[in-house]
Design a protein that fits this description.
By secondary structure, the protein is an alpha/beta fold. The chain contains 10 helices and 17 strands. Helix 1 (about 15-25) links the parallel strand 1 (about 5-10) and strand 2.
């Protein structure tokens, strides 16, 4: 049976797409929301660490299936096609389920700082990078940050953070208490003159929105919440969209191509349904929110006579400026049990080293990290420690509760040649050319990481760690895996960007983007709340345009 025409197609039911689908649906537009995965179900995977989205040893609980979704990486030493979870494939993909990464994430809900939107103006030209300002400011997003915090649900208290941007309303829920290592290490940070404060979390610290409070599950990160107290789009905005009667969610559907007409307007999509049947869905507009890698891939695979190299790509901008986060920090061993393993483990953060350090460009937040369960803990050892055998096991038993860490995401410099392309030889299960990723990091990334790791080590020593060691990131090939962004960056100039300041693709008046690929720079924070805010912001512009 032929699909009925709708007002809007939204591709991707994650942090951005779920928000856009809800906003359009409650505003009266008919919406089809496409998701390549299904509804997440806790009982299908429980808390198996080897299947979590954090370790992915035996695959990932929330997909996608590795064998159906290969990916190509082009490094200085050659080209590699990755097809299984055992060769590192999963670490470079976004979850495939309703809610996407918001189902299994730790839930840190950071706002970017005002300087994050004007990096070029703040720091000037950084030689060798493609550093630019956003075409919008913190003030343009402040209202939408607030809406995300209240509508999805964030617990926090920003009163002890002197570095954040202004806010008009507090968080809707009180913050989570510090766990044992949070209390000890935050006190040490204060003694060093720093400013620790509770991490804002997309988790219910009290019953909120008809769902219970968090039970402090120690295996929270990488898994779905067993009591539904972790707030993602799958249990907030998407159910609201569906309840409006205006949004149809189609799961297990793989969008292959965005279709266009002879007037250079998009008219719908070609996709494969849950039974791998090729189908067409038409619409008045299309909003792509499939992640920075998959959004770029879809645009590049959608070619017309107006755009022979992919939609929005006549200036070779689609897929460029691929970014993520260089994670960095330090570990410490204590002579007492410092880890209580109260879930999820991360309770306090520091913003002292974001835009506040002479000689550093950008910087990053650092926090006491999420719990490392036994397998992940077994991958972490001080330099010179046994990596296998009796010594390895003895370290595991002795120190499982005696090791703590401070880590955080350091803002990467965007690079012109760090990019997502499509491969002309490798295709996925549906015959669609796959993403091919290439690029190297800017030297600034590693310099920033060295500085942050050294500060993290100082704090751990002050907290009483008798042995410390640094974990310094920011080297080698481009990041863009865990917190990917930047491949359809916003901008005023079509020759240097893909979309305008409202998320509309330059030159196509009914094609929008609403995910992390819009971001010009990645900030020094987990990006999900910014992606939520961008979803609200773009949706508001669409609704205003629709009603005008």
């Amino acid at each position: 049976m032929r699909n009925q025409h709708v007002n809007a197609i939204v591709i991707g039911a994650g942090a951005g797409g779920g928000v856009v689908a809800k906003e359009l649906a409650v505003s009266g537009l008919s919406v089809v929301l496409f998701e390549r995965g299904g509804w997440p179900v806790f009982d299908k995977h429980s808390n198996d660490e080897l299947l979590s989205q954090r370790t992915m040893v035996l695959g990932a609980a929330f997909g996608p299936e590795a064998e159906k979704n290969p990916r190509v990486y082009i490094h200085a030493d050659g080209r590699r096609t990755i097809t299984t979870s055992r060769d590192g494939w999963m670490h470079h993909h976004i979850a495939a389920c309703v809610g996407s990464g918001t189902v299994s994430y730790g839930g840190m809900a950071w706002r970017f700082m005002p300087e994050d939107f004007k990096m070029r103006s703040t720091y000037g030209e950084v030689d060798g990078s493609a550093l630019e300002d956003w075409p919008i400011s913190y003030d343009d997003l402040e209202h939408w940050y607030e809406k995300a915090e209240w509508e999805l649900g964030v617990a926090g208290d920003d009163s002890e953070n002197p570095f954040g941007g202004h806010r008009k309303k507090p968080y809707p829920m009180p913050p989570f208490r510090y766990d044992k290592d949070g209390e000890i290490i935050s006190a040490a940070a204060k003694r060093l003159g720093l400013h620790p404060f509770p991490i804002p979390m997309l988790r219910n610290s009290i019953p909120y929105n008809n769902r219970p409070a968090c039970i402090m599950n120690r295996t929270c990160v990488g898994h779905q919440c067993p009591v539904d107290a972790k707030n993602g789009t799958q249990n907030t905005v998407i159910p609201t969209a569906i309840a409006s009667g205006n949004c149809e969610l189609r799961i297990y559907c793989k969008v292959a191509e965005i279709l266009s007409d002879e007037q250079n307007r998009v008219k719908g999509v070609r996709y494969f349904d849950a039974r791998d049947r090729e189908r067409i869905q038409t619409a008045d507009m299309v909003i792509v929110a499939a992640s920075a890698s998959e959004t770029a891939r879809l645009l590049l695979n959608s070619k017309t006579r107006y755009y022979p190299h992919g939609l929005g790509n006549n200036h070779d901008q689609v897929g460029r400026y691929w970014q993520g986060h260089a994670y960095t920090g330090a570990f410490g061993l204590f002579d007492f049990d410092i880890k209580s393993y109260t879930g999820p483990g991360a309770t306090f953060g520091l913003c002292d080293f974001v835009h506040n350090v002479d000689g550093m460009i950008g910087g990053g937040m650092i926090a006491n990290e999420f719990n490392r369960m036994p397998y992940l803990f077994s991958q972490t050892r001080p330099p010179g420690e046994a990596r296998w055998g009796k010594g390895h096991k003895e370290f595991q038993v002795k120190n499982f509760r005696r090791m703590s860490e401070l880590h955080g995401p350091v803002q990467e410099m965007p690079m012109y040649d760090a990019r997502v392309m499509v491969d002309d030889k490798v295709k996925d299960h549906w015959g669609i050319p796959v993403a091919a990723i290439t690029g190297t990091r800017h030297p600034v990334d590693h310099e920033n990481c060295k500085f942050l790791s050294a500060r993290a080590e100082e704090i751990l020593k002050e907290a009483g760690a008798y042995r410390t060691w640094q974990s310094v990131g920011g080297r080698g090939d481009t990041g863009g895996f865990q917190h990917q962004c930047g491949t359809t960056r916003m901008g005023h100039d079509p020759e240097k960007s893909v979309v305008d300041k409202h998320g509309k693709v330059h030159g196509i008046d009914n094609l929008y983007v609403a995910d992390g690929s819009l971001m010009v720079t990645g900030g020094g924070f987990n990006p999900v709340l910014t992606i939520n805010a961008l979803g609200y912001y773009v949706a508001n512009e669409i609704v205003k345009s629709w009603n005008s």
